[in-house]
Amino acid sequence: xxxxxxxxxxxxxxxxxxxxxxxxxxxxxxxxxxxxxxxxxxxxxxxxxxxxxxxxxxxxxxxxxxxxxxxxxxxxxxxxxxxxxxxxxxxxxxxxxxxxxxxxxxxxxxxxxxxxxxxxxxxxxxxxxxxxxxxxxxxxxxxxxxxxxxxxxxxxxxxxxxxxxxxxxxxxxxxxxxxxxxxxxxxxxxxxxxxxxxxxxxxxxxxxxxxxxxxxxxxxxxxxxxxxxxxxxxxxxxxxxxxxxxxxxxxxxxxxxxxxxxxxxxxxxxxxxxxxxxxxxxxxxxxxxxxxxxxxxxxxxxxxxxxxxxxxxxxxxxxxxxxxxxxxxxxxxxxxxxxxxxxxxxxxxxxx
Amino acid sequence: xxxxxxxxxxxxxxxxxxxxxxxxxxxxxxxxxxxxxxxxxxxxxxxxxxxxxxxxxxxxxxxxxxxxxxxxxxxxxxxxxxxxxxxxxxxxxxxxxxxxxxxxxxxxxxxxxxxxxxxxxxxxxxxxxxxxxxxxxxxxxxxxxxxxxxxxxxxxxxxxxxxxxxxxxxxxxxxxxxxxxxxxxxxxxxxxxxxxxxxxxxxxxxxxxxxxxxxxxxxxxxxxxxxxxxxxxxxxxxxxxxxxxxxxxxxxxxxxxxxxxxxxxxxxxxxxxxxxxxxxxxxxxxxxxxxxxxxxxxxxxxxxxxxxxxxxxxxxxxxxxxxxxxxxxxxxxxxxxxxxxxxxxxxxxxxx
Lengths: 352, 352
What we know:
By secondary structure, the first copy, chain A, is an alpha/beta fold. In chain A, 52% of the residues lie in helices and 17% in strands.
């Protein structure tokens, strides 16, 4: 990250950044949602955004594809963007991931700023330098690791989010707490995200994003300790895939909340993770997120999805990120299939 | 550059690299020309190439586009490429530029090796980390700066090249000499590239590519002294554009040979570049490359193309890379339009 700013004065910050960079021209990428709900206010408050050429893309992960990317490159061409033009990506993860990739590759790279407008985007998609698009129906199959010139984190946009959207982002904040410290975890489990107030949440976001940053800095290319950030995600991806096949899609944030329950159970079986914390976290999830339901016959299907996960290399065990205790991570821990199956059974007993 | 090897034992070198990298799988990108003329020999001599999945793309700069790139990504998907698969790009600049970009962006980056098969590719396109494709009819509009994991430079493929193709690459070698030293320039002007022998040429290539490397290392992002490598290119691009409009395309290498004549004349007008060297180089070009012909009324058109060149920022002068003497470069030197016009007139007097 070249510059990461936490501020609820977004318009002023963008103008100051533009004053500093002195771009040849400015482009703003939004999707049709942020075009309606976020852009007008920023256009009136920020001279830079007000005078920028607006590029609007279609919302939703299904539009994070080569067609949309090609349209963004085309609009940069049409607007005579040069290597010193600036692209400001304002939106959720789709806009910031795809806009960042477009900027990194247009004329071999122009400066860009990410302004995430969702809690999930703020906590997750804007730090770590992951840019890209889906390709051939595979998520993020084409992309790059490249940091934004600036990321502006603000809670002012979140008043347009539903409780469900807030909870989606909050699952990732809790993940950062679980892999870091009991104190941070306790505070987050005691907080009611659905009735947040902007300034305290901005402070909590700062703490949470610093966690992600510290793991990313230690392992920029995602080959080792950064896998800590995958905590809960192996189960989560399997839950998402099963939900998709049942035509009842599960959001990624909810899947992570449920996946971490299963991952803590497996941590208990494999590494003796303390039951006290397992019970506290599971109660929190049941109360706020409900549960992802499956029956005992579904375990084999879930395990088959996990075996196909790209991080796996052996057919008799599955690699997981697990916790020995809150704040103590083990990455690339191979767990035998028998224990994975047992964890799924215990999950059913605990939450269903 | 992570590793740059000069060798005429290409097959063995590829196998050794594969032994070291232990890739999950190997893909080889060729165009239909290298598929016919180069690939069969490498397939029989190198175990790695023999067992690799072959991706064939259409030859020619007109196919260095998003469609071809998308096909390469698709073939990597179809072949189940993982982040530890290896892509070997064997061909001219189109294959190495586009294959490198595909590798850099597939799953956010997989290892890749470039094996240039033309003199121009060897001397120019394989060092400097420029990857990419044409977009919206603009050359290299989409791309990245990223070094190959290995570049294998060999003269063994050049027996398939025509004299014209050899001269195209040789123009860039002479450029490297002119911006470096009188001694290197003298040796190159005395050598007959069209009757080369492999081993001495490999030594000359080594010296020439080291010149490019040294400029690239000093300025990886191409913002300052690396512009030395653009010597002759502002005129060359204008000649190429005019030739294209006349439906009689001029190859880039020839355009550079002619462009450097004009650039040396302008260097004489602006920086008192010595006439002795100007005359020596001009005689060499006339003898080996002929001349690019235009009449006195064409100067305005050529100047208008140069004014639209992306490196230019002011309408009363044009920025050039010029020489004070052989081996002494000035980058970003603004020359008044009157002197640019004068240089074009003197060019006509000298070569036509």
